[in-house]
Amino acid sequence: MNTKLKIFSTVVVLSLSAKAQQVSTTMPYQDDKFACVTSQDADRYVNDFGVNVPSFGGRELCDSKVEFKKLMNDFSLIEKGQFTTGQIGTSQNVFIKDFIPAHQYYSWMKSQTRGVERGNDVPYATAYNSGGYFTMQDGWAKLSTLGRVGTVVHEARHTAGYTHIPCTQGTYQGYNLNGCDSTYNYGGSHAIEMEYYARVSVLGINFHPVYKKMARLMAIGRSNIFFNKPVIQKKESVMALSMDRQTAFVLTDNNQWVSKETPKVAGHLKRTSFGAVIFDLQKAFAIDPYQNSGFSDVVEDVYSYFKLLGETQAGLKDLEEYDQGVKRYVTKISSDDQIANFDFPNGAWGNSYKLPFVVAATTTAVPSQPAIGYFLIQSTGVVSQYQPQTGRLNTLNTKWDFSNQKVILLNNETLVLKNNGEIKKWNSETSQVPWALAANLGLVSDLVSIPLYDGFKVVVE
Ligand SMILES: [Zn+2]
Fold it and tell me: Cα separation of 56 and 68, whole Å?
């Protein structure tokens, strides 16, 4: 059996936007915006893919709360999605290799699918493929339209015999779980899924701009851990939030600040594996560092491991996704100072331990420390580094300066956002100077380091 380790999901997208008018030629991205499927189309999809209708709740043509209609929406996105052709794809985007011809997703899917049913007998899988018969599980049902289409495209590739191997990096590193592909060029299920997302973003004609944004975030969030030989290359950058919190600024390669649309929600900036979110201890909303959609719809983060918020009880003090060497960790601290890591092979939070102090703040960087980590700060200023491998705490020989709102590392520089909104370059305890690149940015309300991958271009807008 081929299983797809796309495990932790939650309901994806909230729309706050009444002005999200869709161009008539654009397909919707939210299930409840899809028109009823015609009886003829439904019959055709059921026949083409061998759909077990009763297992999806019965033949419902209009109400997308019924899972049969969700599956119909998936097939219609696959059948009706259009892509431009030409050089732009293969020459300019690292994900687009023409593994699947862009105009043949529907016929290819049909040829690789013997049957589709709904079940939930493999607890850690979103969906799985057994000899061309797909079982869509609870994880699939909870996904967005984009996530569900990505899942069925992924599963279809397994029919031709492409399988996964253990991961040498990422959240599954060190476990004997077949979750990764060796390389992108292997053209396995992960690559086929990423190629779809990239085409939607770069070449898509009639996809909703928010669907395209979701495709970029999904491609970056997943491709940076599911290939043992990386397909995308990372550069460190910075995101800053304007004083009025209306705009996020991203620093480009040539030291230019470009503005990115920002969810109008409360919370703090956090680094994620695709970029950054605004996190309020209950939900995390994505900021796309690459391209604006033109829509103010807020997009909940189901792309980095902040999606674990969907599996997490209320009462958090902090949650952090961070890398230590090649391994990625997700650690939470509850409001009563219990700390726990997510146990990825078991698909659940691991044992929690009571910390021997009250955590006043956390940071992933500390002045004078050369590397990022997960640091816990007491109200006295004592700083301890948490070691996720062992659960140990190492007390540092330094005190936290509470006039620092954020501390980040940018390549070899330590940058400090002071409580008054100034960004300083930290040289030593006694030498902190205004950061030259912040000169034309002015005061900011928040600051975070972000990864920028070469999977997509940072559009100047
Ligand atoms: Zn798979």
Answer: 5
Q: Quick one: which H or E segment has residue 319?
A: strand 316-324
In terms of domains, do 360 and 435 share one? Answer: yes
CA of residue 5 to ligand 1 center, whole Å: 6
- 460 inside domain: no
The candidate with the shortest Cα–Cα distance to 213, out of 149, 144, 145, 291, is 291
Going from the Cα of 427 to the center of ligand 1, the distance in angstroms, rounded, reads 47
User: What token pair was written down for 353?
Assistant: 């331990």
- CA of residue 177 to ligand 1 center, whole Å: 12
Q: State how many domains the chain has.
A: 2
- Ligand 1: distance of its center to the CA of 122 in Å? 13
Which residues lie near ion ligand 1 (Cβ < 5 Å)? 4, 189
pLDDT of amino acid 21: 44
Domain closes at, from 200, 223, 246:
223
Same domain, 250 and 355: yes
List Cβ neighbours of 330 (8 Å cut-off, separation of 6 or more). 171, 305, 308, 319, 320, 321, 341, 342
- Helices in 286-431 by DSSP H: which ranges? none
159: DSSP letter: T
Distant-in-sequence, close-in-space partners of 206: CB < 8 Å, separation ≥ 6 = 25, 26, 27, 80, 81, 82
Question: What pLDDT, in 10s, does the model give residues 377-430?
Answer: 999 999 999 999 999 999 999 999 999 999 999 998 999 999 999 999 999 989
Within this chain, do residues 245 and 148 fall inside the same structural domain, yes or no?
no
Alpha carbons within 13 A on the beta-carbon side of 381: 9
Of 172, 169, 144, give the one whose Cα is nearest residue 4. Answer: 172
Q: Which domain holds residue 285?
A: 234-453
DSSP symbols for 219-277 = HHHHHTTSBSS-SS-EEEEEEEEETTSSEEEEE-TTS-EEEEE-----SEEEE-SSSEE
Answer yes or no: do 76 and 200 share one domain: yes
How many whole angstroms separate alpha carbon 402 and alpha carbon 381? 8
- pTM value is 0.92
322: three-class secondary structure by DSSP: strand
pLDDT at 87: 54
In a domain, 459, yes or no: no
Other residues' Cβ atoms within 10 Å of the Cβ of residue 148: 26
- How far apart CA 400 and CA 419 sit, in angstroms, is 13
Residue 163 one-letter amino acid: T
Ligand 1 centroid vs 8 CA: distance in angstroms?
14
Q: Which two tokens stand for residue 129?
A: 């493929």
List of the chain residues with pLDDT < 50: 1-23, 89-90
CA-CA distance, 286 to 271, in Å (whole number)?
Answer: 10
- Give the separation between CA 313 and CA 349, rounded to whole angstroms: 10
